[in-house]
Amino acid sequence: MSHSVPTSEAGGLAIHRTDFVVAGSGIAGLWAALCLARHGRVALVTKAELQEGSTRYAQGGIAVALASKDGPESHLQDTLIAGAGLCDVPAVEVLTYEASQAVADLMDAGVRFDQEGGQLVLGREAAHSHRRIVHAGGDSTGAEIERALTERARASDSIDIFEEVMATRLLVVEGRCAGLDARDLAGGENLRFIARATCLATGGLGALYRRTTNPMVSTGDGIALAFRAGAMVRDMEFIQFHPTALATPGTPKFLISEAVRGEGAVLKDVNGEPFMHRYHPQRELAPRDEVARAVWNEMKKSGEAFVYLDFAPIGRDRIDGRFPGIVSELRSRGFEPHTDLVPVAPAAHYFMGGVDVDLRGATSVPGLFACGECACTGVHGANRLASNSLLEGLVFSGRAARAMLRVEPLPAKTLSVLEQMPFAPAPVAEDVYGEIREMMWDDVGIIRSEHSLNNALKNLARLNGALGTSAAPERWAMERANMILVADIIVRAALNRKESRGAHYRTDHPEQSEERLFHNLLYQDQDGNVRTSNRPVDTRRFRKPLPEEE
Ligand code: FAD
Ligand code: SIN
């Protein structure tokens, strides 16, 4: 671990003064840190090893419209359709029109995508109207991205890396974020990072669910920290469930990429019969929420905890060549993908909501930025299009970094307040991990209702009542407190949205309502009361389609 030397110590608190502090070291945090490092000193704080996070497990790849008949406009339209009316169009324009430059920048940073004859190989995934997924090592895109970016970050003289250091609180002085407090989990020390701009890149919250593809670091910490600091959060009801996680015991669930269905694999019921034709004209390549609910429905019908995925239609050579990581993992678990039907079931996979940010990654708290899965830019709406999240992490972290550069240094008065301020004890909870995960899966999962959501709210009120604080907190105890808070916000948001749209399906409101084309906003006022409001979806267009696409 490379550390800057603390500039001072106050009451057992090691204080680091820096230009920028970034929490999280997935694609969003690493890219933000690397962009910032060209202009100032960056503290990169991450609660596990540098490379741990969802990014390293990504299989399918990054969506970018590079094929000859493809273009950003088509990518934009596919994103809007998947988002079920809740995408902000200007944000999707940014995502899709800035994609090819961002991917080129990533390659300049050393990421090696699969190529044939000097051209990038493009994969197909659900609800994309063209082949447009760049990937690495066949199905180990995320591992290649983490390899290249962590190497770069470690080689940078301007980035101070703090591994196993968990952000515990945002420092807000006179309404402006001026850094964060953190706990050195290995050294048992409390740390303060004072910075002119702070960036949350702490990833998603799949660990709140019994079945998830996410690593255990995905406990929604950044969202909890931002919410406690008074920041607005948006569209918290939208959790994406991936339809094809391997249905074997253990956590996290091993993902079987959508790209496998993109190459021809077929979903079958427990009798070995295909069923997707009964649910959607695009069958296996329907939007992810539709496929997840179809699988769920088939599981309910059969009473089994899985359906099957049949790899055979892909063809033997192509299975091995295109999906070496998945094939080897399946074989290590006793499945032969050439001949066996592989049991799969849905699992919590991605979080569309998050800390409300604008197109520059700025939150509602001055000086605080957010990017990657913990942020809500408006690009995913009610249901994310496959392989748009690594892209979002990349495009919007670069934008956040550029905006952070323009933040004024902290005034001397703020600096002296921060040097005196004691470390605030962090919220902690008992080990209620299993209980939260069961409750979220059963009551706030693929299918919800007012009844199930109220049940969850009641249980969360009890868990909230048992929260404590600690000046020497352990990671798991802080994570549990964050999970309780984030679960509570999700439930409130889900109760507010009285319709079914995208990944949010309510049996008591099965219809989509045109009156509800708004973003669900929640924040905590200064007295600790949770406030709700909403904002209409932004449908403005700023860019004209490129001439060749018109
Ligand atoms: P992460 O990569 O999750 O990183 C979050 C970081 O924050 C971690 O380093 C974590 O340790 C740190 N952290 C968390 N809390 C704290 C704290 N309190 N203090 C300090 N550090 C903290 N998307 C695609 O576009 N294409 C794909 O093919 C694809 N495949 C996927 C496959 C799997 C199995 C999974 C789980 C996800 C996949 N996704 C895919 C989604 C995508 O990987 C994620 O959305 C994306 O990587 C998130 O990046 P991030 O930088 O926001 O967060
Ligand atoms: C997958 O490979 O199926 C995951 C892609 C994604 O989540 O974008």
The number of distinct helices, counting runs of at least 4 residues, comes to 15
Strand neighbour order, sheet with most strands: 1-2-13-12-11
Give the DSSP E fraction (strand runs of 2 or more residues).
Answer: 15-25%
Helix content: 25-40%
Number of strands: 26
Overview of the structural elements:
This protein is an alpha+beta fold. It folds into 3 domains: 14-238 and 352-418, 3-Layer(bba) Sandwich (FAD/NAD(P)-binding domain); 244-348, Flavocytochrome C3, Chain A, domain 1 (Alpha-Beta Complex), CATH 3.90.700.10; 426-511, Up-down Bundle (Methane Monooxygenase Hydroxylase, Chain G, domain 1), CATH 1.20.58. 32% of the residues lie in helices and 21% in strands. It has 15 helices and 26 strands. Strands 1-2-13-12-11 form a 5-stranded mixed beta sheet, sandwiched between helices. The longest helix is centred in the last third of the chain and has 22 residues, at 475-496. The termini are far apart. The model has no long low-confidence stretch (mean pLDDT 95). It binds flavin-adenine dinucleotide and succinic acid.
